[in-house]
TrEMBL record:
NCBIfam families: PRK11609.1 (NF008623). One of its GO terms (biological process) is pyridine nucleotide biosynthetic process. CDD domains: nicotinamidase. It comes from Rhizobium acidisoli. This is Nicotinamidase. Belongs to the isochorismatase family. Its EC number is 3.5.1.19. The keyword Metal-binding applies. The lineage of its organism: Bacteria, Pseudomonadati, Pseudomonadota, Alphaproteobacteria, Hyphomicrobiales. It is an enzyme of class 3 (hydrolase). PANTHER family: LD05707P (PTHR11080:SF2), PYRAZINAMIDASE/NICOTINAMIDASE (PTHR11080). Residues 3-204 form the Isochorismatase-like domain. GO terms for molecular function: metal ion binding; nicotinamidase activity.
Amino acid sequence: MKALLLVDIQNGFCPGGNLPVPDGDKVVPIANSLIDSGKYDLIVASQDWHPSGHGSFASAHPGAAPFEMGELSGKPQMMWPDHCIQGTLDAELHPALKSEEIDLIQQKGEDPDIDSYSAFRDNDRDASTGLAEFLEGQSVTDLDVCGLATDYCVKFSALDALEMIPGVRVRFIEDASRGITPEGVAAAIEEMRSRGIAIVDSAEVLAG
Ligand code: VGL
Ligand code: ZN
């Protein structure tokens, strides 16, 4: 079974959102062409889904400013602007994304005391969201991962997929993803590659 994981293609990570990734919205037409390709047996998506006052928000820590390192539950934590708050427009999947074709939407980041970049488990690698067990149960052998942001949620999701779904082959679709910083993206791609994730383009996927 071949599956596609669309990571956090939400208003909040697109221009106009609360934590905009440069050109984040450019992934939407590419994601739609992947969705429509007929290459996948299963299409899943993740959705960053924070309660207001989440501990990853700078606003929850007196004196902290967004994009500085701070601390959450005794561990280093990037301080983010308030983003993707449950039930707000910011948290909705991008309106142009063909979300009616998505088989399962995995929400994450609900625990106020820990962040969850990965679609599969919290940042302390403890609490599983259940997505790995679901994909394993569906006998997924091949998983393509793309979306927002390459240097955070996409990278951690791809690495966890490899670790948590027995025997799975993982590919990262570079042009269907965007990151927060160019240096972060370069380091993320190198880390994924070194762990055995294939770095591909949507053209290659669509032609394959
Ligand atoms: C993300 C920062 C905070 C992401 C989510 O989707 O990459 N980044 N929350
Ligand atoms: Zn978040």
